[in-house]
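Hi all, long-time lurker, first post. I run a small reading group and we've been trying to get comfortable going from sequence to structure in the token notation. Rather than ask abstract questions, I figured I'd post a concrete chain and ask someone more experienced to write out its structure so we can walk through it together at our next meeting. Sequence below, copied exactly:
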Amino acid sequence: MSTDHTASRPRLTRQRQLILDRLDQVDTFLSAQQLHAALRTDGEAIGLATVYRGLQWLEDAGIVDAIRTADGEAAYRRCSIVHHHHLICRRCGRAVEVRGETLEEWSRNVSAEHGFTQPEHFVEIYGLCPECSAVAEELPATS
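-- Answer (accepted) --
Happy to help. Here is the structure in token form:
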């Protein structure tokens, strides 16, 4: 008697693949609404609830990263699977993955100092990317 265990495992559905394909095209974090609008513009008949569920599944599976925007909304980006942090441009939203051994060491040390074990942390650093910095420097100063 053979048992097919694949039926009980969640899978990468067509809709989830559409979401991943769209995230592969950008280097910014996108909200579910932004992804939904982009997919609809591409002619895909996909509902907003499906996008939300797909993003949650992809985040739970470790395939996408999620951050909270300044207004509390979740935004998503396809990232590498190794532990990393993000530099995010405040103006254009461009995101860059960075590793930080100094931060990792600090996290372990401060946790140990207080008797904590198995520390986890998530760090996003906001600033201006080189292109937006150049534009900002060209703008006249306001008084």
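A couple of things your group might point at:
Strands lie at 30-31, 64-68, 74-78, 85-89, 95-98, 124-127.
The chain has five helices and six strands.
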